[in-house]
Task: inverse folding
């Protein structure tokens, strides 16, 4: 056969097969490669089984469960609803305040009790500070995934200031056990308001610095724009929430749309991705949504700090928590998305069932869908933009 | 005294002594650069690095090397032992061979051949073979990925490097690095990057093209040594270190020594061709054979500092963007530069 000979029409080739000039087909196989349970980029113990054709990904199969610690089973065996809270901390260990907040709101709704105003204000301040801290980790590690090692350390410097605030209040830096059913474990110390105001003033220009260093850097934009595009309808069908959903252009934020606590008293806007440098719903959009949410959180904190009323934070904590038999599902907006607690009570002092709807778990399920046709280097960035914390995915 | 004279006049002893000098330099320079990299990186990242081993950590590189020396030598079970062991040395040889034609001063050049630049580019291509060997022999899918990508990257960026050197050769008229350096003698205004020692009109016409060529040469040199933003084969968050993954202890140290040596080599190329090599920027003030060594190493270290600075600031390019940059951006620009510089020179 010569090169110019046309192949007979009955010749069947696989897609992507290379046909040599002598007419033989070189079969190209797909390779199964393992992005093992441990990652150098701090996402936790997630195993991604990737089926690749050269550098192009054909399929991604996430394997989870390496960090399963039986949260829901533990919750059933606690003799007191308050005892579940340290376990709630440890699910999403990067955003503990928000976990506790969700659980506390759920049980309070089950008990039909109201907490004092002061408690609500402090809870909002803590939740928003925690949101900033969590987004700082997301942004810092995202920079490392893209190869920029420096923003990580800048983010952690700022995060240390937030952790100082938390340590001053409840003694813990990461797992607080602070937001209890009916109130808080400690009142904020006298220096807290002043230090928090200083932090807000310090942090606003830092956001601009991060944007200059990382977000609008040409190389970073090239790596993340048009990568991992999550269309609006796919996001909604897969029950995405949080920055994943808002990055795809859906204006949905539980703090405004399914209100809990006192978020309606503050002026802030949920941030939505608009496809400024690429398509709507690409990795860059999710990143910029997180950056802008941090700024909105600073707004909320400043407004709350100005208006904290006096009161006793432990006044409404019930001596005995024995809710009537019934069930409740409460969802709150954590930095990762919609965290839902479905609590069934059978009338005794310990919960019958506590089921957690973890946002990172649901957001992760869309990963195979959005990585078709991406390259392996893109997969790292796509997985990073989902912002998973394995403690939450596995519970 | 006579015996020493007799020994030194023996050709073989001379050759051995001359060729040991670069390796002594490389070892000393690697220690300094290790320390510099860690400290500069730390200060860019708003922290301080080593402070306890010696004053502000100056003894840390020794500690690092001692640690690497005493590590267990592990080779993966199904690895290709011979290639696995050979790979680091091939990478080092490729780099070290290039040092033969670098003029450190007016009195020292390892081997004063007429094809200096040509030999340099050819010898530094051996590095690609070593990296491919290292990646393949590790018997690890991720190492293979890293090795393949690195090979593709280094081969593609040889083209802009060679073409940039062609521009400098056209201007200076020689491939011999010693002649190229002498051509730029007389002060900073005679450096090729500012247009070369030509009359004013020609120099102004040449200036934009030599500047662009110099920038392209610098970018290509970053890619040649696998440094961010081109370090995809090495530090990708896929798994540890790409082709380096299975290497530990002294073999890993060998790869890293080779990378640092390569860094200085490509910087030396840029310095010799564009920044006047060992000539003093003040013309005859502070010039001379010994001052030449100082100027050469100082200019080289400025580039090393730039390498480090850029590494800790920028994210990395994806492999296809990397290749796109080389073939569709840098090379066409260089073709235009070659053409225009040629035109200006014959005018």
Result:
């Amino acid at each position: 056969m010569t090169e110019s000979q046309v192949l007979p029409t009955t010749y069947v080739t696989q897609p992507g097969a290379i046909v040599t000039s002598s007419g033989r087909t070189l079969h190209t196989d797909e390779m199964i490669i393992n992005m093992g349970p441990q990652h150098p980029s701090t996402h936790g113990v997630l195993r991604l089984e990737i089926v690749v054709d050269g550098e192009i990904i054909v399929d991604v199969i996430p394997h989870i469960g390496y960090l399963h610690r039986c949260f829901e089973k533990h919750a059933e065996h606690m003799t007191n609803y308050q005892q579940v809270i340290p376990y709630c901390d440890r699910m999403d260990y990067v955003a503990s305040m928000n976990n506790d907040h969700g659980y506390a709101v759920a049980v309070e709704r089950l008990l039909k009790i109201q907490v004092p105003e002061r408690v609500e204000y402090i809870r909002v301040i803590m939740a928003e500070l925690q949101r900033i801290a969590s987004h700082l980790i997301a942004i810092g590690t995202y920079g490392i995934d893209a190869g920029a090692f420096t923003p990580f350390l800048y983010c952690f410097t700022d995060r240390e200031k937030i952790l100082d605030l938390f340590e001053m209040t409840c003694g813990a830096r990461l797992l607080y056990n602070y937001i209890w059913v009916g109130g808080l474990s400690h009142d904020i110390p006298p220096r807290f308001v002043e230090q928090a105001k200083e932090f807000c003033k310090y942090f606003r220009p830092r956001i601009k610095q991060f944007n200059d260093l990382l977000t609008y850097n040409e190389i970073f934009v090239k790596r993340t724009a048009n990568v991992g595009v999550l269309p609006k309808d796919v996001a909604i069908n897969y029950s995405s929430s949080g920055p994943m959903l808002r990055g795809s252009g859906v204006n949905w934020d539980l703090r405004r749309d399914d209100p809990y606590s006192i978020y309606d008293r503050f002026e802030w806007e949920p941030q939505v991705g608009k496809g400024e440098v690429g398509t709507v719903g690409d990795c860059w959009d999710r990143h910029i949504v997180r950056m802008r949410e941090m700024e909105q959180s600073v707004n909320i904190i400043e407004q709350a700090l100005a208006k904290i009323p006096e009161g006793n934070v432990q006044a409404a904590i019930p001596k005995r928590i024995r809710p009537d038999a019934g069930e409740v599902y409460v969802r709150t907006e954590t930095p990762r998305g919609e965290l839902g607690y479905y609590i069934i009570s059978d009338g005794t002092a310990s919960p019958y069932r506590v089921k957690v709807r973890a946002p990172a778990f649901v957001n992760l399920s869309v990963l195979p869908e959005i990585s078709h046709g991406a390259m392996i280097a893109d997969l790292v960035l796509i997985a990073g933009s989902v912002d998973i914390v394995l403690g939450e995915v596995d519970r | 005294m006579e015996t020493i004279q007799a020994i030194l006049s023996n050709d073989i002893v001379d050759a051995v002594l001359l060729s040991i000098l670069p390796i002594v330099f490389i070892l000393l320079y690697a220690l300094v650069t290790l320390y510099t990299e860690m400290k500069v990186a730390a200060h860019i990242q708003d922290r301080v690095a080593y402070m306890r081993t010696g004053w502000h950590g100056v003894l840390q590189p020794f500690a690092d090397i001692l640690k690497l020396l005493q590590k267990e030598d592990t080779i993966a079970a199904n690895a290709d032992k011979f290639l696995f062991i050979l790979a680091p040395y091939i990478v080092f040889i490729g780099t070290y061979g290039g040092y033969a034609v670098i003029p450190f001063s007016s009195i020292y050049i390892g081997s004063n051949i007429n094809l200096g630049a040509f030999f340099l580019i050819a010898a530094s291509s051996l590095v690609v073979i070593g990296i491919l060997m290292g990646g393949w022999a590790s018997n690890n899918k991720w190492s293979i990925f890293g090795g393949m990508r690195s090979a593709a990257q280094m081969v593609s960026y040889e083209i802009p490097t060679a073409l940039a050197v062609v521009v400098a050769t056209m201007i200076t008229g020689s491939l011999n690095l010693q002649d190229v350096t002498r051509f730029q003698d007389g002060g900073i205004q005679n450096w090729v990057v500012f247009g070369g020692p030509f009359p004013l009109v020609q120099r102004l016409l040449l200036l934009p093209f030599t500047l662009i060529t110099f920038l392209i040469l610098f970018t290509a040199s970053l890619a040649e040594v696998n440094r961010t933003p081109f370090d995809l084969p090495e530090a990708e968050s896929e798994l540890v270190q790409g082709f380096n993954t299975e290497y530990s202890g002294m073999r890993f140290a060998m790869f890293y020594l080779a990378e640092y040596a390569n860094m200085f080599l490509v910087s030396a190329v840029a310095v010799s061709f564009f920044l006047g090599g060992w000539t003093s920027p003040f013309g005859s003030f502070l010039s001379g054979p010994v001052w030449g060594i100082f100027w050469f190493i100082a200019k080289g270290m400025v580039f090393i500092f730039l390498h480090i600075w850029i590494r800790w600031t920028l994210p990395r390019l994806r492999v296809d963007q990397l290749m796109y940059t080389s073939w569709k951006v840098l090379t066409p620009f260089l073709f235009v530069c070659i053409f225009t510089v040629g035109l200006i020179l014959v005018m």
Q: What stands out?
A: The mean pLDDT of chain B is 86.
